[in-house]
Sequence to fold (324 residues):
Amino acid sequence: MPFFPTARPVARYLAALAVALFVGAGVANAKPLNVVATTSMIADAARQVAGDRAEVTALMGPGVDPHSYRQTRSDIAALARADLVLWHGLYLEAQLEEFFLDLGKRRNVVAVGEAVAREKLLSHADYEGRFDPHVWMDPKLWETVVYAVRDALIATDPDGAATYNANADAHVAEIEKLVDYMTSVTATVPKQSRVLLTAHDAFSYFGRGYDFDVLGIQGISTESEAGLRRVEELVDTIVERKISAVFVESSVPERNVRALIEGASARGQDVTIGGTLYSDAMGDPGTYEGTYIGMIDHNATLITRALGGDAPEGGFQGKLAAGS
Fold:
């Protein structure tokens, strides 16, 4: 199966979309703005920037894999009613790309992940023209996305420009503090232990930013298959480098990680699950881990502690749930 799946035609949705657009036609924008985002990370950025000026809905909640997500009829209706639609792009929403490109001809649709400069994106030698979409794993890159969300809100609601600018700057200031924390705690992980092995290759931007070797059982997309040879190669790496902890992800089944642990154990290397990382979705709404800052704080703190570094159990702001 290809590393990046091919999006299916969306012609069957167009009739339903046309009906929804007709129903929504001619309705004046009301305050607060109706904003629909694909991922929870983008929705969080929109809420932080918009404040009370928008009601923000995320199509994909906790544990939902954006690589394989397909729009429903209720999604189509919500998108048709929205004043602003925010999606990530960079082929993250692989099964939705054609749909959003078509929707963008009719509605106010912005791919905010595309704002990151191409020279800062990670590519893959086997897939020309495609980039790793997981830019939120490096908070410095995510700042660019926050400002792209701000710009989309200003273009939609110019009267709110002052609010959007102030809120975006305040949110980015908090992200900068998180960056300082991450830099400090991850530096305490011993050099020989700086290997992050997870269910799929979602953490390469984190690895580049904080000096970890990152290995994924599956590729950048969870739609790619984890073959037996790949599992065997990773078992070899675990044994050779004496890796003691691997990680599961909240939005990816853990069966492949379990296979690695069993394979390493059969060869005399004890490996534990270091914990569950948030990769393509945040935690539950209403929790600290259900915010972008909480999600990344959780990941950085858990990785540091599981791999032998020193980080406070409560994380960056002392807000992490016990045992998270």
